[in-house]
């Protein structure tokens, strides 16, 4: 990290740690909030993103069972956020594993994505009894890192040693960014928590953009910072009542524009380019909220078509209920169907067979036992845009 890259407008200060050849400059961010230039472009982006989120919230609230979209969209967020860190798991991989009641353990990549879903669910539930805080963030991090890469790096504990961000294999001397030294982490987190919990006149989305930057700049864990930082966005949108549930999958936008995302964050640190970062964040929120509304409409259209198809063959309400469950997680085992319907194995087989007969489900394992059935059309509807827009840019050592 070159001190010459940091101007007088930098969003923090550089501190020199160590002596001699091993001395390194670390970046300590200023307290929030910064001074923002409220120009017409920024105000327009705030309005556009807020309206898009409002439409998404309205669509979610209008459903008799929001679970059918929340289940799908939170899985998409988990897949995209983990993909930024280098995992190769797809939505299909995730739902297939979730559908198995027994069998082989998941691949490490799949476990990382599953942990993201678990951590998000935990954080949302925990908000009922604990405000968004250092404690909650640490608890979420512990679940996120359990049994996966980095699990040995003190999950759930704020770091007591130096970390850094750079290309794979580089040392701290060649790092792109070095966050605060360990002795400054807790003070930075205390100020961060105070901003999290204090009333603010800032537009909610601008405040979220600031919070996300600040967390990334502090980089308080030895591993998993990127995933926790993105997860915080979802938790904040729900905690502040902007969305009725985790309906926004912003990590998909970040993944498509990964290099710009890193560049905008670094631009804040080095040159105080807050407007550029906030504008990028707002464009992402607007794009993904609009995409979520479109994708929701497509999924609901499929749901109606499936209901009509099943009603024509005399299916009852219990079979229709399985369709709704497939929209949330488009893979189904017999045991899962039996559990959902609170019925016997043999009765569940009859419902699954009906879904197969009308072309909604396909058996995916080729096994005679422990079979899993997949709703291919639902997966395509949920992932088609993701597949078209996903980039293959490198990740680097950015976890």
Characteristics:
single chain, 399 residues, mainly alpha, Fic-like fold, Arc Repressor Mutant, subunit A, 2 domains, 3-stranded antiparallel β-sheet, two-stranded antiparallel ribbon, 15 helices, 58% helix, globular, disordered C terminus
* Structural category: mainly alpha
Count of extended strands: 5
What proportion strand? Answer: 5-15%
Overall number of domains: 2
| C-alpha termini separation | 18 Å
CATH architectural category of the largest domain? Orthogonal Bundle
Please provide the ordered H/E string of secondary-structure elements.
Answer: EEHHHHHHHHHHHHEHHEEH
What is the CATH topology classification name of the largest domain?
A: Fic-like fold
What is the CATH homologous superfamily assignment of the largest domain? Fido-like domain
Q: pLDDT below 50 for ≥5 consecutive residues: which ranges?
A: 386-399
Strand order, largest beta sheet: 3-5-4
Plain-language structure description:
- The protein has 399 residues and is mainly alpha-helical.
- It has 2 domains: 3-293, Fic-like fold (Orthogonal Bundle), CATH 1.10.3290; 295-383, Arc Repressor Mutant, subunit A, CATH 1.10.10.
- The protein is 58% helix and 5% strand.
- The protein is built from 15 helices and 5 strands.
- Strand 1 and strand 2 (24-29) form a beta hairpin.
- Helix 4 (108-126) runs parallel beside helix 8 (225-239) and helix 7 (204-218) packs across helix 11 (274-312).
